[in-house]
TrEMBL record, chain B:
Enzyme class per UniProt: oxidoreductase
Purpose of the protein: The branched-chain alpha-keto dehydrogenase complex catalyzes the overall conversion of alpha-keto acids to acyl-CoA and CO(2). It contains multiple copies of three enzymatic components: branched-chain alpha-keto acid decarboxylase (E1), lipoamide acyltransferase (E2) and lipoamide dehydrogenase (E3).
Residues in Dehydrogenase E1 component domain copies: 86-380
Pfam families referenced in this protein's UniProt entry, alphabetically: E1_dh, OxoDH_E1alpha_N
UniProt similarity note: Belongs to the BCKDHA family.
Keyword line: Oxidoreductase, Thiamine pyrophosphate
Full protein name: 2-oxoisovalerate dehydrogenase subunit alpha
Substrates-to-products reaction catalysed: N(6)-[(R)-lipoyl]-L-lysyl-[protein] + 3-methyl-2-oxobutanoate + H(+) = N(6)-[(R)-S(8)-2-methylpropanoyldihydrolipoyl]-L-lysyl-[protein] + CO2
Signal peptide: none
Species this protein is from: Azospirillum thiophilum
Domain of life: Bacteria
Keyword Nucleotide-binding: no
Requisite cofactors: thiamine diphosphate
């Protein structure tokens, strides 16, 4: 089995689906000849042709509207938003159209579009290249929201997303594209080749949407995380020397409530981490779900460790980023209760 | 150093105003209506640059006497012409019945297309049955031209037990995959780029079907209009981009959408899209222009923009009172006339129609609409039901119902 970076794994997923299914097309700004600014679509146009993988004008709203029309025809478009920060112009087509097309036409028309968007900070992208807007989409009925944290998951989840008959918002943690990031900005990035989850099988495999992964078993506290924060949470649990169980949610909608419930009932404590701003973030939904489903099992108040409610600042990335120290602090707090 | 400039006059903002408001005389004299038959008909492989005149002119076929004249006269057989007339009359009778039903409280809302019947009917007939249509809420004539059952449309308006859309959409937001009629959105203009995407998909797959989209002149200010033109031009999408200029976006006259400075058809020229401006009340002109654009699309020559120049004779919707913002009965004085009357006169001139037959047809379509109405009302109306089970509210959000919707459905007790 080959080791791959997340970029290579995503590329392999699209390559596999373009090969298997003649209805799959890949479109977006710079995704064709150049292979995407993050190189995720490198070589796909050369291999599959210009009508299967093609560059688009710079209009996210246009890309999304075109993708909805293509999906209504019967294709399975994979649309790349160059940065998740640029997705807002596409929101009307995604939220008002793609998400509701099945509902409003009672299943006569559907929009099985996969929207890929690199999200999150840690690359000095300032406030326009660092956002984590996943909560906006988790609030929309009709869209599924998926975020991988490893090359293995990235390929399997992207294949599932493309095969899914509903629109899927697929956020890619760009800080993890080339290596796992544990949140220590002053340490060198370890390449994916030294991480077990970079072993990516050849060919087709699918990781079902809606299923979380237990990335670390533990008995004292449950950490709910996704994307980059899975790796940061692992580092924090190690630093705090807490017997934490870490769930990588992988899919935010529909979220794996069974896994969350089983883990929190076992540990009695819950820390939720995400990089996005706190207020109205997906952590709020997770917190409410844990309260609804596990209240009588809780031994400490639920903690949230998140980005601050500010735009992502360029010079103060590391103060903004919820790193291992902040998570470790929260772990210690819940363990004191 | 330069001498100081004299103090300029203060700047002032131009806010477009329609020429007439309620209480003033109806006056369309400023409107320039070229004679029928005068506009040239270029070859379908003509470039946008070589037909700029047609984006400012007005393609007209039927003259004031009802004769079909000029190079755009489509030479349709009597059967096609009579089907067109019947469909337009059906649309009008349907609109009247459904408007009345709304006034009787049987539904919440309705939108007529009075004065614009030629557009949807002629265009629906000029396209192939398999082509995909991306309409606005004022192209009910497309469904009728495709012989879609009136009772089915009425069930949608009533949100009743027979509504295939399960009571989810506002009245007139039809959808029929089988009729090639794309689900209507209330967010204006979104269908435009979707139609281009559909057309691009058809081209990618080597299909022979084309797409057609409609937008109102007001909604051309929406981004989707411009995204659609960019994509259609860039990828030479096999799509017909129709733009219905009926002069009124609710109470805002077309000057507010940019219609004072140029034509709406001219918007296409900047994108390199061949563009036509067509008399939208002229069944034959609309038919011919649509056929021309369809031939271009089918020959891989790419998109065409067609501005259909017409007038919204009725209110915007049952929630609107046009007497508050424009002179009463302005629609009746529209210089391009009534599309049904114009086709009727043409048919009589051809010797294939008569006033007596026209009257009989009027009674026939009224009876058909009435029968469909009874059929639909037997399945329920919005004020009394019956409806689908409220349980269906949770269906079709996703292909399979996820746990949280299952749970909410149980909480709702349905």
């Amino acid at each position: 089995m080959a080791t791959m970076t997340m970029v290579q794994a995503l590329n392999a997923a699209m390559d596999e689906m373009l090969t298997r299914n003649g209805d799959v097309v890949v479109l977006g700004e710079d995704v064709g000849y150049f292979g995407g600014v993050f190189r995720c679509t490198e070589g796909l146009q050369r291999k599959h042709g210009r009508t299967r993988v093609f560059d688009t004008p710079i209009t996210e709203a246009g890309i999304m509207g075109i993708a909805v029309g293509m999906a209504a025809y019967g294709l399975r478009p994979v649309a790349e938003m160059q940065f998740a920060d640029y997705i807002y112009p596409a929101c009307d087509q995604l939220i008002s159209e793609a998400a509701r097309l099945r509902y409003r036409s009672a299943g006569e028309f559907t929009a099985p579009v996969t929207v890929r968007a690199p999200y999150g900070g840690g690359i000095f992208g300032g406030q326009t290249h660092s956002q984590s807007p996943e909560a906006i989409f988790t609030h929309v009925a009709g869209i599924k929201t998926v975020i991988p944290s490893t090359p293995f998951d990235a390929k399997g989840l992207l294949i599932s997303a493309i095969e899914d008959d509903d629109p899927v918002m697929f956020f890619e943690p760009k800080r993890l594209y080339n290596g796992p990031f544990e949140g220590y900005h002053d340490r060198p990035v370890v390449p994916w080749s030294r991480h077990p989850a970079s072993e990516v099988p050849e060919g087709h495999y699918a990781i079902p949407l809606g299923k979380a992964a237990t990335v670390r078993s533990g008995a004292a506290v449950t950490i709910l995380a996704y994307g980059t924060m899975v790796h940061v949470a692992l580092a924090a649990a190690r630093d705090a020397q807490v017997d934490a169980e870490i769930l990588d949610l992988r899919t935010l909608v529909p979220v794996d409530i069974e896994a969350i419930e089983a883990s929190v009932r076992k540990t009695g404590r819950c820390v939720i981490v995400h990089e996005a701003t706190r207020t109205g973030g997906f952590g709020a939904e997770l917190s409410a779900l844990v309260q609804e489903h596990c209240f009588h099992h809780l031994e400490a108040p639920i903690e949230r460790v998140t980005g601050w409610d500010t735009p992502y600042p360029h010079a103060f990335e590391w103060e903004y980023f919820p790193g291992p120290a902040r998570i470790a602090e929260a772990l210690r707090r819940v363990m004191e209760e | 150093m330069d001498a100081p400039l004299p103090c300029p006059a203060p700047l002032s903002l131009h806010v477009p105003e329609p020429p007439q408001r309620p209480g003033s005389e109806i006056d369309f004299s400023a409107l320039s209506v070229p004679p029928a038959g005068a506009a040239r008909r270029p070859d379908t492989d003509c470039s946008a640059a070589d037909m700029t005149d047609l984006a400012y002119d007005l393609v007209r076929v039927l003259d004031d006497e009802g004769h079909a004249v000029g190079p755009w006269a489509p030479a349709l057989d009597p059967d096609t012409l009579l089907r067109g007339l019947r469909s337009m009359m059906t649309v009008r009778a349907y609109d009247e019945r459904m408007q009345r039903a709304q006034r009787q409280g049987k539904t919440s809302f309705y939108m007529k297309c009075t004065g614009e019947e030629a557009i949807a009917v002629a265009q629906g007939m000029a396209l192939d049955r398999a082509d995909m249509l991306f309409p606005t809420y004022r192209q009910q004539g497309l469904l009728i031209a495709r012989d879609w059952p009136l009772a089915d449309m009425m069930c949608q308006v009533y949100s009743n037990a027979g509504d295939r859309l399960k009571g989810r959409q506002m009245p007139v937001f039809y959808s029929s995959r089988e009729a090639g009629f794309f689900s209507i959105s209330g967010n204006l203009g979104t269908q435009y780029s979707q139609a281009v995407g559909w057309a691009m998909a058809s081209a990618i797959k080597g299909d022979t079907r084309i797409a057609a989209a409609w937008i109102g002149e007001g909604a051309t200010a929406e981004g989707d209009f411009h995204h659609a033109l960019t994509f259609a031009s860039v990828y030479r999408a096999p799509v017909i981009l129709n733009l219905v200029n009926n002069h009124w976006a609710i109470s805002s006259y077309h000057g507010i959408a940019g219609g004072e400075r140029t034509t709406f058809a001219a918007r296409g020229l900047g994108y390199g899209i061949p563009s036509l401006r067509v008399d939208g009340n002229d069944f034959l002109a609309v038919f011919a222009a649509t056929r021309w654009a369809a031939a271009r699309a089918r020959a891989n020559l790419g998109p065409t923009l067609i501005e259909l120049f017409t007038y919204r004779a009725a209110a915007h919707s049952t929630s609107d009172d046009p007497g508050k913002y424009r002179p009463e009965n302005a629609g009746a004085r529209w210089p391009l006339g009534d599309p049904i009357d114009r086709l009727r006169r043409h048919l009589i001139g051809l010797g294939i129609w008569s006033e007596a037959r026209h009257e009989a047809l009027g009674q026939e379509v009224a009876a058909a609409v009435q029968a469909a109405g009874k059929e639909a009302e037997a399945l329920g109306t919005l004020d009394k039901g019956p409806f689908h089970s409220a349980r269906t509210m949770f269906e079709d959000v996703y292909k399979t119902m996820p746990w949280h919707l299952e749970r909410q459905r149980r909480q709702a007790g349905i």
